[in-house]
Give the backbone structure.
Amino acid sequence: MKFPSKKYPIKNIRAISESNLEAKEPDTTFIDEKGKLVKYKYQCVRCAECCRGNFEIYIREEDIRTWMKLEEVDWALESIRLRPEGIATRDEFGEYNKIGKTLKRLMEKYGEKNYPEKLEELKQFIEGAHLYFGEDKKRPEVHSILEPMRMTPILFPKDLKTIQKGLEWGLEYVICTDAYGFCPFLELNDCSINEYKPLACKSFPYDKEGNLKVNDYRLRTCQGFKKIQ
Ligand code: SF4
Ligand code: SF4
């Protein structure tokens, strides 16, 4: 597992992403909460704040298709985990009792009658196709689909096909950030997988629908936006 052991210098500004320099409208206009027009100018300044801001970088089908063409993919598999919040999130007491998006979608798709059977299938898939790391090996992650969800243990997909299949199930996969919220692929303010980095990185700070909300944390973090009006 490759995790950075120290904080990286912020001064050394180098190319994080040429693609971040393209693709964006130079001017972006928002209507803020008070209905006022706010105008921003965007230009990526290669600050790499998007790589150390503890953002969840979601893996998409397109990323997997790109990576499948590469000979070496261990770097990806070691750094991508199943996102447990898709299965369960915290309730008002802070316990992981609230059903997550993945299971909600499963319920909607298969209805009350077929849901238990599908849930069982999903559990078997998670158990069989992921490597398991955690404190309590007697209590595999899959049990927590039915019981309160825990943040640990961590489940790593065994191969890229697992991620593809998991995405079809509606599971979510993200890059594991370190304790500081740094992406493991960040090296001296540069992206070590720049050519193959996930689409979510290429489109940062926009979300996957290409939207950006005026109060979005990403907008506040990204140094490339300057308010001009
Ligand atoms: S994959 Fe590269 S661009 Fe994406 S967050 Fe990590 S270091 Fe930054
Ligand atoms: S935070 Fe914004 S400006 Fe900085 S590297 Fe990422 S996209 Fe570019």
